[in-house]
Design goal:
heterotrimer; A alpha+beta; B mainly alpha; C mainly alpha; A: alpha+beta; Rossmann fold; OB fold (Dihydrolipoamide Acetyltransferase, E2P); six-stranded mixed β-sheet; six-stranded antiparallel β-sheet; about 35% strand; elongated; B: two-stranded antiparallel sheet; 12 helices; 2 strands
């Protein structure tokens, strides 16, 4: 995909896409509720959520394939609620690619141009240009059934690009590719986005895809928008327990704890031990007057210590490169994961280990064994507190 | 805004519904005029007795015409001839079809020629088949009459004992192509390894056929039976072209009885009652066919 | 009827567009079962298929295991030949007789091979027996029925598969229910309708009652439901409405089924007998099947005309079957759905 994707492209500036209070119900079952989000012009916005959360419906609403029950949709500042899909000037790439099986690659790519009254010579020039840029030029006379998964994916992209739409909608376009190809296509799509200088709204359930590709991520669950932010924001400051558990691999450990203690010295007690909260978080919890909280700790923020306040039983040792990941039983049944750089060789199933919260400290010069063995101070950014009832994040 | 969206949604729905009605309209109009209306009208006509002389008004007799007709000797005779016709045509046709398909399911040089001949009658219409046999059975010049030593006289088709069997032979012959193709297709879907396994177990050809092939063919056999029975209940052309219901009403099947009542005797009331009886019989058979399809789909699903 | 709906949903779920060629009757609903009466063979071209014979072809190699002696090669050919002669003879002798004079036909012992074939019988069938008119009438009626039936069935099938409108389910049921009303049961009132419309002895009488088909609507709806929703959405975004989606995507994708249905439709229209008999009584609109009935009465001196006429009446179907072998099994099975 070297060079400009469309050299003859007329000046086509990307359009912003915005949703304001958009809802969609099917027979009183909500698919999307009160959705407000702006995709800026030229942005790569990822809609991330588990299957059935409503993210595809959002895409279909933007495309005009569904009509919202409520709210306003704007493309390039224009309200498009009553604009037919064909006149919204946006292209969509489907999970199934939706290539027309009986048409050649050339006809597939050309198809959207035919309905728009481009003359034949212009059409074939545009098709060939796009095909060349996506390395499809040798496949133009094949039918979709004769193509590999990756090639079909490119044809679907070409069919979208050839129209030079105001924005691209992509519905899990990589989910039918094998793992290696998916990683390559991720990079290509990001490159393509930069070259086309266009708005892309991209739906996926794969949080790795979301965090690696998107300028911003919108996390959706149960038909509602949970959080919008850059990948880093979403990862470091999840707005609620759902986002915390959904973004990050392996998922964040979320443990329920009783709060006890006075003043700044506050502990969260579990069945198998307790955790001393940093003063800022203790203050936040006290301000809300909570007796119980959900505590989120990422696996890499847990470390194994000789004498700790949290006790867990090793269930599974998984070696990941130079590091290892432990799955432990904790608090009478719940599993938690711990990422550690310790040599797993001496870990066994059924071992009871002590855990502490904090970035792992490597054995290095100048740090005594005493210091290593002592409990590290709990860094506030490694702990995420959430309200038990609403899942809402408690900020210091 | 909300109300505008609602009205917009409604407008689109109305336009889509309008297109839907427009596209089903031609079919529905034809069905209305030539299927549903006449069906109801036939039931209604059955309430009126047609007077013996034309130009007199038909008078309402309610259900009594249904009762008298359906219990009349001629109706029961006609029904019995129809059932006999079904019995003569369907089982023999299917057994013959299976036999031909099995024979043609061999790897032999030139087998394609035989397959083509066996399936060739599918191209004949009832009228074509009937006229061919009409000439062959002609008492003066017909070859079959000659070979069967029936030359001269009134001929096979005028023989009360032989007329219905003769018409049945014509029907079997005309349908054999279809049955053969159906059975061949079914036979091809019998997995070879099942037969191989039976062969290694030392089973004879006949035993293998009976225990492996035939059970696997049974859905097709059932399908062909129902289709054959319905087809035989509707058989008209061969009667009209070969025997016209005779001799002495020996080939007066139900459908021909209807035709005679309506167009020879102009007794529309009687014809209507007979039509409804035919409809009821075919309805039961068709429902059996649907039920069968469903059951088969169920098997595939599980 | 609700159970019937289950069947449709199931078969709809089973049939994708890709396999619409190999699907059996009822849009894929019934193929693939153990005895699949049609599905298996369709894709392989009618009754072809070469993976036969394991049971019979090599039986004699296992003489130790057999219980009965399998037939020898010669016996098998003999049996096949006898059956082929029995089944093939009526058509064969019709061809032979159509090339003979009336005197030769009546000769005894019979002439079984035309040493000096005469082609005059065919010309005479046209000139003396109105066969040209009959064939023309049949062609007009059949072609118009096939076209109109395809149009109405495809449109209604599409509407029931893709468009939403009130009473859709009920109306679809009504269309399916027509399969249970045989034409034979309604001829009396239908003929009255034709007379009342002033259509007696006219082409509309022969055509209009048959331009809608419950089987066709059912088959096409099933097949169209197998077209992925993504294709419809893609086409909408590409700028195409229902009409263009139907003509440029749905119809091309379902061409094999449409061809099979057209074949079935052609055969049943061409072979119609009872209905044309009761709504026509002049040669100008009689179809060829009814023409055969007229031929029957020509008498012994013109027997040769009967053979020539019969062959001509069957010829279009023969030719069609040769061209459309692939669709044959499927078309026949579809037709068999009609009660």
């Amino acid at each position: 995909m070297a060079g400009a994707v469309l050299s003859s492209d007329v000046d086509r500036s990307p359009a912003a896409v915005s949703l304001e209070g958009v809802s969609k119900w099917y027979d009183n079952v909500p698919a999307v509720q009160d959705f407000t989000i702006d995709a800026e012009a030229g942005e790569f916005l990822v809609l991330l959520g588990p299957s059935g959360c409503g993210k595809t419906t959002v895409l279909r609403l933007i495309a005009g394939l569904e009509i919202p029950s409520q709210g306003v949709i704007r493309i390039g500042g224009q309200v498009v609620n009553d604009v037919d899909p064909r006149n919204r000037d946006i292209a969509m790439v489907f999970q199934s690619y939706a290539l027309y099986p009986h048409m050649t690659v050339r006809r597939n790519i050309e198809f959207p141009l035919r309905s728009r009254g481009h003359p034949a010579p212009a059409r074939s020039r545009m098709v060939e240009e796009v095909a060349r840029s996506l390395q499809l030029d040798k496949l133009l006379d094949r039918k979709p059934a004769q193509l590999s998964g990756g090639q079909r994916q490119r044809v679907a992209l070409a069919r979208a690009i050839v129209r030079r739409p105001l924005a691209f909608l992509m519905d899990e376009p990589l989910s039918n590719l094998d793992a290696q190809l998916r990683i390559e296509m991720r990079a290509e799509l990001v490159e393509l986005h930069a070259k086309l200088d266009t708005t892309i709204i991209y739906v996926t359930h794969d949080q790795v895809e979301a965090t690696t590709m998107g300028n911003r991520i919108a996390v959706i669950d149960q038909s509602r928008l949970q959080q919008v932010g850059t990948p880093r924001e979403v990862y470091e400051h999840p707005a609620n327990a759902f986002v915390a558990g959904f973004v990050g691999n392996p998922p964040m450990n979320i443990i329920r704890g009783h709060l006890e203690g006075e003043g700044d010295a506050m502990n969260a007690r579990f069945q198998d031990g307790y955790l001393q909260l940093p003063p800022v978080l203790a203050a936040a919890a006290r301000r809300e007057n909570l007796g119980e909280v959900l505590i989120g700790i990422r696996p890499q923020d847990l470390q194994i210590v000789e004498q700790g306040t949290i006790h867990a039983t090793v269930s599974l040792v998984e070696v990941v490169g130079s590091e290892s990941r432990l799955v432990c039983r904790f608090a009478g049944g719940q599993f938690i994961t711990v990422d550690t750089d310790r040599d797993p060789a001496h870990m066994r199933n059924g071992d009871v280990i002590d855990l502490a919260v904090g970035r792992p400290r490597r054995e290095q010069q100048g740090v005594s064994q005493e210091e290593l063995r002592s409990l590290p101070e709990v860094p506030p950014e490694a702990l995420h507190l959430f309200d038990v009832a609403s899942g809402r994040r408690l900020d210091p | 805004m909300t109300s505008r969206i609602r009205s917009l949604t409604r407008l689109k729905a109305i336009r889509e519904a309008g297109l839907g009605y427009l596209w089903i309209l031609p079919a529905l109009a034809v069905f209305g005029v030539f299927v549903f209306f006449p069906l109801l009208k036939a039931i209604w006509l059955g309430f009126f007795e047609t007077p013996p002389f034309p130009n007199l008004p038909a008078h309402f007799v309610g259900l009594s015409q249904y009762a008298s007709t359906l219990s009349s000797e001629i109706f029961l005779h006609s029904l019995w001839r129809t059932v006999l016709f079904v019995i003569f045509t369907v089982p023999i046709g299917i057994v013959l079809g299976i036999a031909l398909a099995t024979l043609a399911h061999q790897r032999l040089a030139g087998i394609r020629v035989f397959r083509t001949i066996f399936s060739s009658t599918v191209a004949t219409s009832t009228a074509v088949a009937s006229v061919i046999f009409f000439t062959l059975l002609d008492p003066q010049v017909g070859l079959f009459s000659y070979w069967l030593g029936q030359r001269g006289g009134t001929g096979i088709l005028a023989n009360p004992t032989l007329a219905l069997p003769a018409v049945s032979v014509v029907t079997i012959w005309q349908n054999i192509g279809f049955t053969f193709i159906l059975m061949s297709a079914a036979l091809q879907s019998v997995p070879d390894d099942l037969l191989e396994a039976a062969r290694i177990d030392g089973a004879s050809n006949w035993f293998r056929f009976r225990t492996v092939t035939l059970p696997l063919l049974s859905p097709t056999v059932f399908f062909a039976s129902i289709v054959g029975i319905i087809g035989s209940f509707q058989a008209f052309g061969q009667i009209d072209l070969l025997t016209q219901g005779g001799p002495n009403n020996h080939t007066l099947v139900l459908i021909y009885y209807i035709y005679q009542a309506a167009y020879t005797d102009s007794n529309y009331g009687l014809a209507a009652v007979l039509s409804i009886a035919l409809f009821a019989i075919l309805l039961v058979l068709t429902l059996a066919q649907f039920w069968f399809f469903e059951r088969r789909v169920f098997y595939v699903g599980t | 009827m609700s159970a019937r709906e289950t069947l449709q949903e199931r078969s709809a779920a089973a049939g994708g567009i890709g396999d619409s060629d190999s699907g059996g009757m009822a849009g894929g609903g019934s193929n693939g079962s153990s005895g699949g009466s049609s599905g298996g063979a369709t894709g392989k071209g009618g009754m072809g298929g070469r993976r036969s014979g394991a049971a019979y072809g090599r039986g004699h190699n296992r003489s130790r295991n057999r219980v009965r002696r399998p037939m020898t090669m010669g016996a098998r050919y003999l049996l096949l030949a006898v059956l082929a002669i029995v089944i093939g003879f009526p058509i064969y002798i019709t061809v032979v007789n159509s090339l003979l004079t009336s005197r030769q036909i009546a000769a005894r012992p019979p002439v079984l091979f035309p040493v000096h074939p005469l082609w005059g019988d065919f010309a005479a069938a046209f000139s003396q027996a109105h066969l040209g008119i009959y064939l023309r009438n049949s062609a007009i009626v059949t072609i118009l029925i096939v076209i109109a039936e395809l149009v109405t069935s495809v449109l209604a099938g599409y509407a029931f598969a893709f468009l939403k409108f009130p009473f859709r389910r009920l109306l679809f049921m009504a269309c399916i229910a027509t399969m249970m009303v045989p034409m034979e049961a309604t001829i009396v009132p239908n003929r009255q309708t034709i007379v009342a419309l002033g259509w007696f002895n006219s082409f509309p009488a022969l055509i209009v009652p048959f331009i809608a088909s419950g089987v066709g609507i059912f088959l096409f709806r099933q097949a169209f439901l197998g077209v992925p929703r993504d294709l419809r959405d893609a086409a909408r975004l590409d700028g195409y409405g229902h009409w263009h989606f139907l003509t440029r995507i749905v119809i091309p994708l379902n061409r094999p089924l449409i061809a099979a249905f057209a074949l079935y439709s052609f055969m049943s229209a061409w072979n119609q007998y009872l209905w044309p008999l009761i709504v026509t009584d002049t040669n100008s609109v009689r179809t060829v099947q009814i023409g055969l009935k007229q031929l029957e009465g020509v008498g012994l001196n013109h027997f040769n005309l009967i053979f020539a006429g019969t062959l001509l009446a069957a010829l279009p179907i023969f030719l069609l079957l040769i061209v459309f072998q692939r669709q044959l099994v499927r078309g026949l099975s579809a037709g068999a759905l009609k009660g």
